[in-house]
Amino acid sequence: MEVFQVTDKLPDSDDPVILVIGKFDGVHKGHQHLLEQAKALCAKEEKLAIVCFTPHPLWALRKDPAYQRAITPDSAKFYWLEHYGVDKVYNILFTTKYAENSAETFIREHLRGLNLRHIVVGESFNFGKGRDSDVDLLINLCGERSVPVTEVPFVKDHAHKISSTDIRAAIADGDFATAKFLLGHPYFIEGEVIEKRGTYWLTGMDEYVIPKAGEYDVTINGEQRRIQIINADRIALPEVTTPAQITFNTAK
């Protein structure tokens, strides 16, 4: 999978692509459904490409503390996107300056260099500056290049749409069974391990959503262990090799 870090215009490419646009925080069941629908549209020579954003727009624009950390920071997001069949990722650095771009600028200029065959978005998709930057506008703008647009309905858990907000809440509460059900895959964090005065601490996880304080049964690098979360910035581990990938067990 190719990953491109982008600040405005996406790099030119002749590769024919089916493009999916979204935040993709968590790469949850709703995102997976989008990817499945887009993959089904790909002809033999076409590639599945993603436009996503870092950091979360609600953190970049409003400094909403609920969105300062990610369910899947870039490394985890890229891992799951590749796992679910993505060929290219265009990861846009989202800033207050970038947010000033209009929908017209995004489609006509930033995506101009791509060989677009189709665009796929989720239900109620909204993009670009302006209140009317919705799916209807996307369809109109893409019509200028004869690029079809497909709007995929929400995936729902019973009557409730699967959302990153609910997954964040489940992780924060230590409810990993619910988080796994909504994600469609286990929740994990990664970091380096340092030793101080006989205690081993996980570092480098400041971009991840961290569960509330407490002791948790986890899998560390494939082995069953127990950790203690002191707060969002302090996690005590048993002696383990570094780096450590910690997957939270779903059993309470």
From TrEMBL:
Broad EC category: transferase
Keyword rRNA-binding: no
Domain of life where this protein originates: Bacteria
Database matches in Gene3D superfamilies: HUPs
EC numbers: 2.7.7.2
GO terms under biological process: FAD biosynthetic process; FMN biosynthetic process; riboflavin biosynthetic process
Keywords: ATP-binding, FAD, Flavoprotein, FMN, Nucleotide-binding, Nucleotidyltransferase, Transferase
Stretches assigned to the FAD synthetase domain: 13-165
GO terms for MF: ATP binding; FMN adenylyltransferase activity; riboflavin kinase activity
Catalysed reactions, semicolon-separated: FMN + ATP + H(+) = FAD + diphosphate
InterPro entries documented for this protein: Cyt_trans-like (IPR004821), FAD_synthase (IPR015864), Riboflavin_kinase (IPR023468), Rossmann-like_a/b/a_fold (IPR014729)
Pathway annotation from the record: Cofactor biosynthesis; FAD biosynthesis; FAD from FMN: step 1/1
Coiled-coil region: none
Family listed: Belongs to the RibF family.
Protein known as: FAD synthase
